[in-house]
């Protein structure tokens, strides 16, 4: 029995002895009992609890602040936005989200089917080649396609040279700065989420079901619709929600390709210092995000498909036959469009950039800024995630799970909203930290802390609580147990979480862009700024470095699915 | 266990490194914080030159907005504000966000191009006008006044920027001064309907006109100079509008520098302005923009540039633009021209 438990019992005895003496004491006692009950009689130590609570609050305050601001933005402003901008923004955002999600699911599922279940040549290699677009941040993808398809781009210049094209189709028909441009880029750089999840569940699919279906006279197509697809439904749903959330929160692609959804509108309202309107739009976007998260929780509860584990047989591999060539072409085209072409473009412009001296002291300054802010953010995340996951796993209660949920607020919501809240909070209440390196780092922590938490939790679930109890019985308070006993054994998980946060921070664009102090541009910010000014030779080397760094956690990501 | 101790040490050393790194970044050395709303390409070389010659570290926020200074009133961050729009600078002065300056070199700039208390000083000037593609339209066919853009004759013929563009805002403010709000709102609405293309910035317009996507576009004069310097697509001409008898004259604006009130590094800020007023640095300020230096003793970097003395320029003193700064955007938006592209 732990120290606190003993106290608890002693207290109980005291209570019995002094019952009914004083009403204020009675209230205190009542509160105390409630407190004990909510922890199931096992409250954590004060230090640990306060650390966790503080972190949870820091994670959510900026967002609460945005909501608060939007509620006091005035009826007039609300009415004007509701009449004028919000319907159009809803339409833009909604149509883009639906289109990208549908198309990415279609591509992801068909690719995973071809790669996992058929005898396509080189299927083992394709399984990870097709996940590679994950390392290319979509805003970098957008830049490469502006270079290729945009005005005065590669394709347009080629088009002008070929007279019969001009004669037959007239002027160059592609406008990359349009719904279709944004749709294309977002689809090409998000489908791997569905691809990875669907591949994993296809691999786990039991052959017995298919054999039974076949014995009942179904052909391959019928089996796909009647047997495989229902099993894939949870995977498709999970992938679709990831993609929908991504599209809602994306800023880089949308701003660079001059399409306007909520994130871009919030950013531009803020850029012209109409902060009240920006917070109103943020509130609407938050509601949209919450709707999608709610759908996720709903569907996850409903759809439980069980596989019978004891008779598991590896799924067999279908022969493509005459479809071999078309399937191979399909896979190659997707790979070329989403990986090969962007890399060629970046290498081409980087080579030009290096020739023109793009890698000067200024460039290394930007790289150094990226490195140190990301490093600092990932260290903070590793440290701050510990109390939260420790509380959640060892002291489960309403309070600890609320703290856990609060910490997800900044992760689920778009970066522009987090940044908006940070500006309010820091400029008004923390002037000393406003416009410093630390403000950017804290924004990154708010956005990515859950990545560290998830990785840490996975490790912590493997450590028996008996070890904690043993340590507690030797007289350590909970926070010391956490640091001295638990931390060393879950260190690999914590470090993996830190690495994930590091890479996400390097890639992060909207919050960094809105919060950077004077003279503190990062590589991601430079890619955005230079690409917008069409200085591709300056943007490309920075983009390539971001991609190279993003490869680090790819193994971990592939293993996770 | 040994392994975990090793990694703990590793973490500890990393932390130490980060703390060291961030600590040395925050040192109170000689520094200058510049907010700039002018194109980074023009400003950065100037600031680099300043750092090199004086040893003062310059930290710059590009694409800054005048309103950020207002938001930071209680927590002043910037020492210097560089702007493309005298309206923004005068607005800041009126809001008490700029401080007076009386250093050396001020007299090299004519009085109409400085604030009354010299809290802002303009260095280079530009005017509005029409860049046209000579393959598509002749000089005779071109409109000769701002008003002419409202004619149905030019429907679909020209390109403009979005309403939130600094040059466009200055343009509309000047028209408000000349015509009053009602007529100006009509003008904004008409050019929005007549425009064949609406772009984010003037750089896009000059390229589009050069490439033959539009016969002409409404830009600042130095974009014409820039397009002439291009290796191809450079068969372009330029119209300075409203030059005729009784016309209002060309709409002008200027780029300059303001001293922020309560600047954390006031000494360095003053030193910067004095340094900037040296003739060679005034030219550096004009830099690649190919604008026209206001100091009449200086040769324009672009030799064929039409001098302001040879043009009929609108009568309004530039500082009057400040009166219109705050609500011009609103007028533009209400007239149906979006501030941002949608």
Question: Summarize this, please?
Answer:
The complex is a heterodimer of chains A (561) and B (342). In chain A, 78% of the residues lie in helices and 0% in strands. Chain A has 561 residues and is an all-alpha fold.
Q: Can you walk through the features of this model?
A:
The complex is a heterodimer of chains A (561) and B (342). By secondary structure, chain A is mainly α. Chain A has two domains: 45-83 and 356-521, Orthogonal Bundle (MetI-like fold); 90-306 and 321-349, MetI-like (MetI-like fold). Chain A is 78% helix and 0% strand. The model of chain A is unreliable at 1-20 (pLDDT under 50). With 342 residues, chain B is α/β, with parallel strands linked by helices. Chain B folds into two domains: 31-125 and 253-309, D-Maltodextrin-Binding Protein, domain 2 (3-Layer(aba) Sandwich), CATH 3.40.190.10; 126-251 and 323-334, D-Maltodextrin-Binding Protein, domain 2. Chain B contains eleven helices and ten strands. In chain B, strands 1, 2, 3, 4, 5, 6, 7, 8, 9 and 10 form a ten-stranded mixed β-sheet that branches. In chain B, α2 links the parallel β1 (31-36) and β2 (57-61). In chain B, α2 (40-54) packs antiparallel against α10 and α7 (202-210) crosses α8. The radius of gyration of chain B is 23 Å and the shape is globular.
